[in-house]
Every structure is written in C-alpha cells, then in structure tokens.
Amino acid sequence: MSGVTARGAQAHGAREQAREIFARVERMLEAAGGGLRNVYKLVIYVTDIAFKDDINAARAETFRRHFPASTLVAVNGFAFPELLVEIDAFANLDVDMWAVTP
Length: 102
Description:
By secondary structure, the protein is an alpha+beta fold. It has one domain: CATH 3.30.1330.40. It is built from 2 helices and 3 strands; from the N terminus they run αβαββ. Strands 2-1-3 form a 3-stranded mixed sheet, covered by helices on one side. The protein is globular, with a radius of gyration of 13 Å. The mean pLDDT is 94.
C-alpha cells in the first residue's frame, strides 16, 4: 500500500496522523484477509524529521511485538499542506512477521 495518509481524518499532529494511517493500513489488510502481522517493511515520509519520536511512539503502539523494517524520510511537503505524514506499507499475506522469533 503506497501513499497512505490521514487525509479527511481529524488527525492534526504527526502522532495522530500516523495512528490514523496505521489504522487504515490495518483495515485494508483485514479486508484482504490479513493483518498487521503481514507487514514486513514501512517507508515513512514526514515533513519534519523532528516528528521522529511521535512516529516511533505510534509505530510502537501499533506493532507491539515485532517492528517491520522501517525507513524514515524527511520531505519538503505533500500535495495537501495539512498532511505531515505519509506511509508506504509493504505486506505479504503469506508471511507472518509475528511468528518469527528474534
């Protein structure tokens, strides 16, 4: 899933937007017969690298057990100025990342 944003939601801060995006990703995966356990990689775009702690907190709330591989990228902005975060989530329904033991 690429270019997932919180557009249209009442999410104003970076953490709120990330939470909404992760919820949207989860709903899309569930509709396809999977879940967050199938996410193996995230690319997270932010308009300010200072949002790093907020993004990490939202990611920790969402992926409590095993974090997918993640990249955080700062960008100059998005097409809609109210957006602070955009996420690409890579998932494979045949892979259960939570079944992997560290």
